[in-house]
Amino acid sequence: MPKLVTTWFGTFLVERGKILKQVLFPKDAKAIAERLRAMSEEKVLDEERQLAQGVRELKVADGRLSPLGPVSKSLHDMEISMRPEVHGFSKGLYQEAMLILGRSRMKEIAEDRYIIQAVRAIDDLNKTANLLSERLHEWYSFHYPELGPDVGDERFAQLIAQYGERTEVAKEGGLPDASSSVGAPLGDQDRSAVMAYASALEGIFKTRGEIEAYIEDRMKEIAPNLSHLIGPILAAKLIALSGGLERLARLPASTIQMLGAEKAFFRHITEGQDLPKHGVIFQHPLLHASPFWQRGKIARAMASKIAIAAKSDAYGDNFIAEALKNDLDKRVEAIRRVFKDQPAKAPRSHDRPSRGGRDRGFRGHGRPRGQGRSRPPKRFSRR
To answer: pTM higher than 0.70, yes or no?
Structure first.
């Protein structure tokens, strides 16, 4: 029975290890790269259709060619006569074609890659902002210690960067009069230095806001279902943690539920701590605003809807987020109604006595290792 086999330099119709027909590709690196690209995209080449035309009971050696016939893989397909040197193709030509293919693919980076970098950039900005904000609070507290508890970090940096002097900061910030402050006076050089530092922190907060706005706009285009279901920022974090939208779409709901809780899950495995119930999806209001005994069930319901929304965004064009959101809200209401009261606290796994009364590092019934009960030597009688 003839079989259709395709290599990087041509396609062949073989039977019992012999070539019946063949169609070689052009000896051009660009043309070979185009065919290799089509093959990687699971497309059937024109040369393959040409050979398969009119052949009865045709079998193919690759699942990509299943529209042409049943798949059959065997060991005798690659014979000496199907080597590239026999047909005038060199390894250098293959390397050149692969380089062309690699360059073309590098120019077609998936859109979600930019979102992943933006999410990681926000994480870096948050770490930097927290570090600089802590230093600014400590620095400016020598001059105006009463300011810290009254305003947030972003407003704190903005007021200092624009005004510097505590009287102006209190006046423009709508705060009580700072004339009775217990802080030390601020010289001109000191004021210039702290204002420059606060201005740098203000710029970081501004940049973070711009990137968040960019993520919100792009996520509505890339993943509209996910963005509508759980919000664009949280949806972008899930995409970044999973490594891409398509990879997120392939993950089961149980894995999506734990994304972002890898360290806690590892501690559960190695140290026997409690199993985490959720990862980054805890940032959703439905979870962090619920009692702790309801969060595990809500997280499972949310992860299942996220999995469906991710598949729809990655492989379809339908907008189903509104229906998913309504189903999720109904499920959350049912959970809150059924599990309204806090259940009795069960002992944790590492609080319960171990099986057989044994403990780590001990052997037998509570004896340390190496101190087990010794047995008397056996006695043999002479006969």
So the answer is: no
